[in-house]
Amino acid sequence: MSDRAGPESTRxxxxxxxxxxxxxxxxxxxxxxxxxxITRKEFIQLLRDRRTLALMVGMPLVLxxxxxxxxxxxxxxxxxxxxxxxxxxxxxxLASQGHFDVASTVVPTVRAARQNLxxxxxxxxxxxGVTGQPQRVLIDGSDAFVAQNAxxxxxxxxxxxxxPLTVDVLYNPTLRSADFMVPAEVGMIxxxxxxxxxxxxxxxxxxxxxxxxxxxxxxxxxxxxxxxILPYSVLTLLIAVVITGLGLALFDVPMRGSPVELFxxxxxxxxxxxxxxxxxxxxxxxxxxxxxxATFILLPQVLLSGALFPxxxxxxxxxxxxxLLPLTYFTPITRELFLKGLGLSQLWPQVGVLCAMxxxxxxxxxxxxxTRLD
Amino acid sequence: MGAPLEIETRGLTKSxxxxxxxxxxxxxxxxxxxxxxxxADGAGKTTLLRCVAGLYRPDRGEVVPGRRGRxxxxxxxxxxHLYADLTVDxxxxxFGAVHGLDRAALxxxxxxxxxxxxxxxxxxxxxxDLSGGMQQKLTLVCSVLHRPPILLLxxxxxxxxxxxxxxxxxxxxxxxxxxxxxxxxxxxxxxVERCDHVLFLHEGRLLVDGTLDELxxxxxxxxxxxxxxxxxxxxxxxxxxx
Lengths: 374, 242
Known about the structure:
The complex is a heterodimer.
Chain A: H1 13-16, H2 27-48, H3 50-70, E1 78-83, H4 88-96, E2 100-107, H5 110-119, E3 124-128, E4 134-139, H6 144-158, H7 177-207, H8 210-215, H9 221-251, H10 259-283, H11 287-304, H12 316-322, H13 326-340, H14 344-368
Chain B: E1 5-16, E2 19-30, E3 34-38, H1 45-53, E4 60-64, E5 73-76, H2 88-98, H3 103-116, H4 132-143, E6 150-154, H5 162-177, E7 181-186, H6 189-192, E8 197-202, E9 205-210, H7 212-215, H8 222-230
Parallel strand pairs in B: 3-7, 3-8, 5-6, 6-7
Antiparallel strand pairs in B: 1-2, 1-4, 8-9
Helix pairs in contact in B: 2-3, 2-4, 4-5
């Protein structure tokens, strides 16, 4: 090989000399610089990765609109029909609550009404006797959610003959779904963004082989962990603030508690969510696995935390799972702070559990986060 | 008495899921040496380098520098493993900062290295947009920013065009001349022929350890010697793309 000595190689001595160390900063400053470097790098990468950014920002907005405008926990426009005889009284009673759309024609027989229920042409059939009084009600139970609501409305109608009761619904008098959903959605979105973004950020580093390079630098485990999650913390908090603002502006959701307290309570919850992201990254080998694992962890949280369905509706056999999920504790915090105006003096048990969870999950992530390849 | 050893392994053994990747490997690389490790794919070259760098914990045996000495080691892994979505400058700044380099020193050293590696005019380009040869040079530049006394290179010229390969070797020669101890893994026999010291790994075992003068008799070639030692195993690449 004759190409060992090139024209450039004659001036290498001052450039490369291993025995001539480059000036370095002190221990504390070095730590701060490393942390700053990782955080800055993550921000740059995040801003350049348009697809992930769109997912992280777009998804919460879509969810907000879906939950705010689309999802209604109260069912209205339940199709109903009268069977055998018309009854202005029954018709008026059904229409009075606004939950039922009553067909103008009367179905002649119970048999025909059953066929309509079977075909899905109606959900409720009210059989009316010759006296004009409802005798029997048939409900399509194949959609349990609609059926349960219909049943409740019909029960309240049947009791309308009794002495009138004064009913006061507190904190959400009109029982608006948005008031119920938007506060819970803040928690769900923070969990989604915090967990998924962190997991993908770390796994991408491993997938691209850059983690190997990082492991060969003097970077410490905690610097790497904190440096990786800091940008996602900022992003998640920013999205949470925007979602809260949009929730208040678009859906008129009341904020009766202190926004500062909400922000403070969100910190331990956020740390727990980010630590779950780090934990996901310790088991996932690539970004697809990270997404799948995150979904596997997030879905039960959404279903079992009380954010969508009441905790009391969850069977005892699996309710213990709910007690292990951060969202189970953050959902009552947001709902009661938004709607009832509660603060730390009432919400401290939930805040305390979240702080403990943040500590446990972070410790676990630190324990499992590897700085070796094997 | 020769130069002290900078890299040393004794009885180094490492396996993955029951498959032996390194089997009782004992070797030493003296300070300032350019040492080439040659072997076919799967011979254990990458595992050896990762054990030396402390990225793998050996099952048995000892290794220096290993995990404790990582601050003295620069690593250029196989393939391109810098941040493709950062520019040349941003990569340099990032690695300089995580190595704890003084800001002024980083600026000065970065500029010198980029000029020397002919990357100065590409400093604003995304690293992922550079050619394979440029990416390898940038990887080398980032791994020597902190002037490590030991440099580990894992197949640095694989997939690199002949001109870039030649330029890369100019950089390596400069490092070698200036006293950096280099352990270079390669699948190309002609590359390890440039080295002071040759190691030949086959199926995790160290079959050859010596200088070219010691190993290659008059009139023979290193490739022939290695084939003989391998005794019927699969051939290794004879010469790279240069």
